């Protein structure tokens, strides 16, 4: 009789505990437990001394869940990083994945209508027990990158997940090539950058753009063109295309004065010198007349005019 009772009690004595079952499933899945409805309930048991990170996804091609496939590598990278933690810490936190086709009832119970979803469960018993009764849900506002995911899950693991972004050798090679190309370009372009005329031209162009109202249009977010013409009425408004027109007018006036001051006096031929005096003087008068007319268009009360 005693032998019979011992035989019947043997399965109870040697039955694996829920923790041991989860540990075995984790080892079989190389650090990621493949869940179904039953193992999900086991992992998220109300009485648990472990924490868990659960990915709910839908990887079957019939589900056409592109985000699920895009997020998969990031999830696996973080789980792989966790597997490198020492056993006393690693075995107190499980990574698990539940596919929709393996547990539709779980999705329905959680009220999920989309995937992927990542939930973090805290222990309910033991030294790490918390009062948090509902799992924390990961916010995908940072995208599907592994770094933000590891940072989020580290709040619920016994120790931080030692995840490091892999070296992007393509970016390193392209960056090196770009750097070498830039150095070579600077070597051959050094005379251009060292020339005072290059800097003078850059300063003149920048000055013309700024005095023509570029910052005004940017600060006020003015449109480039308007429905009632290319000039905005009033001095308190200006279209983006007016910047080009005003810059061209002031630039041409400045260029004409420079020609009169610098180029015309150096002409050896009196005839050529006289012709250029007449030419640039006429340009100044005509362009200045256009500028005054522009003022009159902006403000109908402007009292002055010159030819136009």
Automatic annotation (TrEMBL):
For this protein, the record's SUPFAM superfamilies field holds: Thioredoxin-like
What protein is this chain from? Answer: Dolichyl-diphosphooligosaccharide-protein glycotransferase
Signal sequence interval, chain numbering: 1-15
Chain's role: Subunit of the oligosaccharyl transferase (OST) complex that catalyzes the initial transfer of a defined glycan (Glc(3)Man(9)GlcNAc(2) in eukaryotes) from the lipid carrier dolichol-pyrophosphate to an asparagine residue within an Asn-X-Ser/Thr consensus motif in nascent polypeptide chains, the first step in protein N-glycosylation. N-glycosylation occurs cotranslationally and the complex associates with the Sec61 complex at the channel-forming translocon complex that mediates protein translocation across the endoplasmic reticulum (ER). All subunits are required for a maximal enzyme activity.
Annotated TM spans: 197-216, 245-265, 277-297
Tell me the domain of life: Eukaryota
What is stated as this protein's family in its record?
Belongs to the OST3/OST6 family.
InterPro entries attached to this UniProt entry: OligosaccharylTrfase_OST3/OST6, Thioredoxin-like_sf
Q: Which GO terms describe its biological process?
A: protein N-linked glycosylation via asparagine
Q: Where in the cell is it found?
A: Endoplasmic reticulum membrane
Q: What Gene Ontology cellular component terms go with this record?
A: oligosaccharyltransferase complex
How does the protein associate with the membrane? Multi-pass membrane protein
Q: Which CDD domains match?
A: TRX_family (cd02947)
Q: Which UniProt keywords apply?
A: Endoplasmic reticulum, Membrane, Signal, Transmembrane, Transmembrane helix
What is the predominant subcellular site recorded for this chain? endoplasmic reticulum
């Amino acid at each position: 009789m005693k032998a019979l009772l011992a035989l019947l009690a043997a399965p109870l004595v040697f039955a694996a505990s829920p923790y041991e079952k989860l540990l075995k499933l984790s080892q079989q899945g190389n650090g990621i437990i493949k869940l179904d409805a039953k193992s999900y309930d086991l992992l998220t048991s109300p009485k648990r001394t472990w924490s868990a990170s659960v990915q709910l996804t839908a990887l079957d091609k019939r589900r056409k869940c592109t985000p699920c496939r895009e997020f998969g590598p990031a999830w696996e990278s973080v789980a792989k990083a966790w597997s490198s933690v020492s056993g006393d810490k690693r075995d107190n936190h499980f990574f698990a994945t539940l596919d929709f086709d393996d547990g539709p009832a779980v999705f329905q119970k959680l009220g999920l209508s989309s995937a992927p979803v990542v939930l973090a469960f805290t222990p309910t018993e033991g030294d790490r027990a918390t009062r948090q009764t509902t799992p924390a849900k990961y916010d995908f506002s940072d995208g599907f990158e592994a770094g933000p995911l590891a940072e989020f899950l580290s709040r619920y693991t016994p120790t931080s997940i030692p995840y490091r972004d892999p070296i992007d050798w393509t970016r390193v090679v392209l960056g090196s090539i770009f750097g070498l190309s830039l150095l070579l370009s600077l070597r051959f372009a050094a005379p251009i950058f060292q020339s005072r005329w290059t800097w003078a031209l850059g300063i003149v162009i920048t000055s013309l753009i700024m005095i023509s109202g570029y910052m005004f249009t940017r600060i006020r977010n003015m449109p480039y063109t308007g429905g009632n013409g290319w000039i905005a009425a009033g001095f308190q408004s200006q279209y983006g295309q007016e910047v080009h027109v005003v810059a061209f007018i002031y630039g041409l006036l400045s260029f004409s004065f420079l020609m009169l001051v610098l180029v015309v006096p150096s002409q050896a031929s009196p005839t050529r010198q006289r012709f250029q005096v007449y030419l640039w003087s006429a340009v100044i008068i005509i362009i200045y007349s256009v500028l005054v007319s522009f003022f009159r268009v902006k403000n109908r009360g402007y009292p002055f005019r010159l030819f136009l």
